[in-house]
C-alpha cells in the first residue's frame, strides 16, 4: 500500500471515530479507536455533526438530485451545471473531429 493510501485510510479512521463520538456512541468509538489504533489527536475539520456527516449530507443531496427524488435547490443547480458542462464538452469534441467525406457511391448518386 502506498504512503498516500495509508494516510488516507488513517484520516478516514480519524473521521469515523469523530463521527461516532459526536453521535454519542462512546463504547463503539472506544472499541473502534482501540481495534483500529486510531489517533486521539483532534480532527482538522471540527464540524458540529462531524466532518464525515457533513460530507455525507452533501453527497446524499447531490446523489438524490440525480434520481429526481426530493432534493435541495443547490443540489439541483449542481446537477444541472454538470449536465450542461457534459453537453458542452461533447459538442466541443464533435466539432474537433475531422469532417469525414461522404463515400464515393453517395457522391455519385448526388451528382445524378
UniProtKB/TrEMBL annotation:
Keyword Transcription attributed: yes
Superkingdom as given in the UniProt entry: Eukaryota
SMART domains: LisH
The protein, known as: Uncharacterized protein
InterPro entries xrefs: LisH
Residues that span the membrane, as ranges: none
Region listing for Disordered, in residue ranges: 86-112
Principal subcellular localisation of the protein: nucleus
Ranges annotated as biased composition (Low complexity): 89-112
Compartment(s): Nucleus
Keywords: Nucleus, Transcription, Transcription regulation
Source organism of this protein record: Opuntia streptacantha (Prickly pear cactus)
